[in-house]
Design goal:
- Chain A: Pfam families: ETF, ETF_alpha.
- The complex is a heterodimer of chains A (316) and B (252).
- Chain A is an alpha/beta fold.
- In chain A, 28% of the residues lie in helices and 28% in strands.
- In chain A, helix 5 packs parallel to helix 9.
- The longest helix of chain A has 16 residues.
- In chain A, 55% of the residues are buried.
- Chain B contains six helices and 15 strands.
- Chain B has a nine-stranded mixed beta sheet with strand order 11-10-9-12-8-1-6-7-13, sandwiched between helices. Chain B has a two-stranded antiparallel ribbon with strand order 2-5. A two-stranded antiparallel sheet of chain B has the order 3-4.
- In chain B, strand 6, helix 2 and strand 7 form a beta-alpha-beta unit.
- The radius of gyration of chain B is 22 Å and the shape is globular.
- Chain B starts with a strand and ends in a 5-residue tail after the last helix.
- The chains are: A alpha/beta (316), B alpha/beta (252).
- Chains A and B meet through helix 3, helix 4, strand 7, strand 9 and strand 10 of A and helix 3, helix 4, strand 9, strand 10 and strand 11 of B.
- Strand 13 of chain A pairs antiparallel with strand 11 of chain B, so a sheet runs across the interface.
- Bound molecules: flavin-adenine dinucleotide and adenosine monophosphate.
- Flavin-adenine dinucleotide binds next to helix 6, helix 7, strand 17 and helix 9 of chain A.
Chain lengths: 316, 252
């Protein structure tokens, strides 16, 4: 069986959900081993064993406290070259997509980016803003595959334990040239857009920044994130980090509620892979209704508060 | 400051995708400079306007990409290089090596690229070029400052922002938010016609990489079934929707 590696991603001393999703995919591909990098993360390694990983390589040192491209690339490229896995799965997150191509280039590997499905030996990934899909296979080993968060079902806990192998990391002066000056966390009670299970999004139809309060209220009832169309961002109503679409975030929540968004092709590019799409729009001809699983033709200022009240009744 | 910018020509964002004989059919499609690469061009021009120097744009592709290189020249780039890859089997690694070799000779202090091309959506070529040329990188940058031979870039991370400092020479990949790209002026368009546009053939670059991944097939998404659309009585619509989300879609 193929040796498949999952590069685990952890944050605040917790293994992120996408890591378990990658383990789930990896089990379809072969024997699963994992790699964990960081500072003070050793204790997390055993957790992966409970999900069917046979071995975890851990590089735990002070230098790996801050993520930088060069340090991660050094450790991962060295380790892959030494242990020779056939497929390496990396989360398609701000970190993963930063180091994966660099590692691939250093070890002379191919990379298949932003994979959303795996069928009959081929990886499926969206191209042309999700208007088409490529079926891709590696023609050399190892191959790096970056995996879109929120699309593969997470591996189930199956008990058991795993071997843990400590990996010594050593860095050259070049590896330490980049310095992380600052990490600014938005303090928010809401989940991050690309990780959210439910997203409530607003567009030009929201008419002004103050009206996003009604979306935030709905989001808080649902435990959702709040997104925006480019029109809302360009109007200065929301920060561009909340933009969904071709030039914004790509999201795949299980539920996407689009309010006052017309459904331009560039918006669909970012949310078309959502499992269930709900549209609220007063224009019955709006393009968003073509991709919506459910929709309400009506005034969002009337509908949204009613929906929030209904959700509240159901969920409290 | 010598700045290289890598630009890819892509389909217009509105383009309808047609698959013919297992390939995406480019006929009749309008083309543009990849939107993220326009941010890269703009940033290069702003840096040059501040500290002086030269901006050189590179694109790998057929004669058709000349049009996009001319646009970059009209925006204000000084000269352009087209890398002709005719007959070469490519993947991201091969394209990156070709571009890196073309750029490599120029002793650039800074290389700017887009973070992702909206056609193949690989998000690899810029970073691979950084690795080949042994440059520090800051990826998906939304704000960039240059001082004392160092670059400070902000990049979005999940739930926040990271500020990274790297020494020059370096490679930066541009994300939306970095700037608003300018339109070419009439004067710029006239001047662009006289600027140097060199063609380099892949065969002269001694490319050693082979494709490591293979696209086996292209397919279009299945047309979605018509959804359930509620109208008229809003109170009924709302309760029907919530019921459907819970009992049918099972998402809440
Ligand atoms: C290169 C490029 C990249 C782009 N990238 C993105 C991107 O990443 N993300 C993105 O979103 N867009 C992107 N766009 C822009 C895109 O083309 C659209 O312009 C944009 O998505 C429109 O936003 P909108 O739907 O909010 O606004 P509109 O298209 O103006 O739609 C507003 C909608 O609100 C409805 N409405 C108004 N009032 C109400 C009400 N009271 N109740 C209910 N409904 C109401 C209207 O019927 C209408 O359908 C890009 C464009 C280009 C050219
Ligand atoms: N053929 C090309 N010519 C010039 N630059 C390219 C080419 N392909 C990719 N790039 C650069 O690499 C970035 C990422 O592309 P990709 O890896 O294809 O998503 C783009 O935004 C461009 O800046």
């Amino acid at each position: 069986m193929a040796k498949v590696w999952v590069i685990l991603e952890a944050q605040d001393q917790k293994i992120k959900k996408v890591s378990y999703e990658m383990i789930g995919l990896a089990k379809q591909l072969g024997d699963v081993e994992a790699v964990l990098l960081g500072s003070g993360v050793s204790s997390l390694a055993q957790e992966a064993g409970e999900y069917g990983v046979s071995k975890v390589f851990v590089a735990d040192c002070a230098e790996l406290k801050d993520y930088t491209t060069a340090k991660y690339t050094r450790v991962l490229a060295d380790l892959i070259q030494k242990k020779k896995p056939e497929i390496v799965l990396v989360a398609n997150t701000s970190q993963g997509r930063d180091f994966a191509p660099r590692v691939a280039q250093r070890i002379g590997a191919g990379q298949i980016s932003d994979v959303m499905d795996y069928q009959e030996g081929q990886f499926i990934r969206p191209v042309y803003s999700g208007k088409a899909f490529f079926k891709v296979s590696p023609c050399a080993c190892p191959a790096i595959v970056t995996v879109r968060p929120n699309v593969f079902p997470a591996a189930e806990k199956c008990g058991g334990s795993c071997l843990v192998e400590e990996v010594a990391a050593s860095f050259s002066a070049d590896d330490l040239k980049a310095i992380v000056k600052e990490v600014v966390k938005q303090v928010s009670s809401r989940p991050e857009l690309t990780e959210a299970n439910i997203i409530v999004s607003g567009g030009r139809g929201m008419k002004g920044p103050e009206n996003f309060a009604i979306l935030e209220e709905m989001a808080d009832v649902l435990g959702a994130a709040v997104g925006a169309s480019r029109a809302a961002v360009d109007s200065g109503w929301r920060h561009h980090s909340f933009q969904v679409g071709q030039t914004g975030k790509t999201v795949s929540p299980s539920l996407y509620i689009a309010c006052g968004i017309s459904g331009a092709i560039q918006h669909l590019a970012g949310m078309g892979s959502s499992k269930v799409i709900v549209a609220i729009n007063k224009d019955p001809e709006a393009n968003i209704f073509k991709v919506a699983d459910y929709g309400i033709v009506g005034d969002l200022f009337e509908v949204v508060p009613m929906l929030t009240a209904e959700f509240k009744k159901l969920l409290s | 400051m010598k700045i290289a910018v890598l630009i890819k020509q892509t389909f217009d964002t509105e383009a309808k995708i047609v698959v013919k004989e297992g390939k995406v059919d480019p006929s009749g499609v309008n083309v543009i400079i990849n939107p993220y690469d326009e941010f890269a061009i703009e940033e290069a021009l702003r840096i040059k306007e501040k500290v002086g120097g030269e901006v050189v744009v590179f694109s790998a592709g057929s004669d058709k990409v000349t049009e996009s290189l001319r646009k970059a020249l009209a925006m204000g780039a000084d000269r352009a290089v087209r890398v002709e890859l005719d007959g070469v089997a490519v993947d991201e690694g091969v394209v990156a090596e070709a571009l890196a070799k073309a750029v490599g000779e120029g002793n650039f202090d800074l290389v700017l690229t887009g973070w992702l091309a909206i056609d193949d959506r690989s998000a690899q070529v810029g970073v691979r070029v950084a690795e080949i040329l042994n440059l520090s990188q800051i990826n998906m940058v939304t704000q960039l400052e240059l001082a004392d031979g160092k670059l400070t870039g902000s990049r979005e991370i999940e739930g926040g922002m990271e500020v990274v400092e790297v020494p020059l020479p370096a490679l930066i990949t541009a994300q939306r938010g970095l700037n608003e790209p300018r339109y070419p002026s009439m004067k710029g368009i006239m001047q662009a016609k006289k600027k140097e546009l060199k063609v380099v053939n892949a065969s002269d670059l001694n490319i050693s990489a082979q494709p490591k991944v293979e696209v086996k097939d292209v397919f279009l998404p299945k047309a979605k079934e018509a959804g359930k659309i509620y109208k008229d009585d809003m109170a009924d619509a709302v309760s029907a929707l919530v019921k459907a989300l819970r009992e049918e879609a099972k998402v809440i």
